[in-house]
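Page 47, continued from p. 46.
Same chain as before, 86 aa.
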Amino acid sequence: MSTSTSQWFVYILCCRDNSLYTGITTDLERRLIEHNETNKGARYTRARRPVTMVYSEPAANRSAASKREAVLKSLPIHKKRALIQH
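Result:
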């Protein structure tokens, strides 16, 4: 199976404590389930369940998704919240 044809996404989750978590995936639904119901979710979100997906955007490939993830992670919280609202 070629991963070059996979659609990548950058996403933001809102955790139970109202904190935000940013990540990348090729399957938004599967990843949300992993964060909420399995040990495959990030350690950060496992301690803050349940989480809700509040934002996602497509990326051209894994590299682009990773770069956008880094940009979003570096944003101040008020700018992340503004992005989610739009």
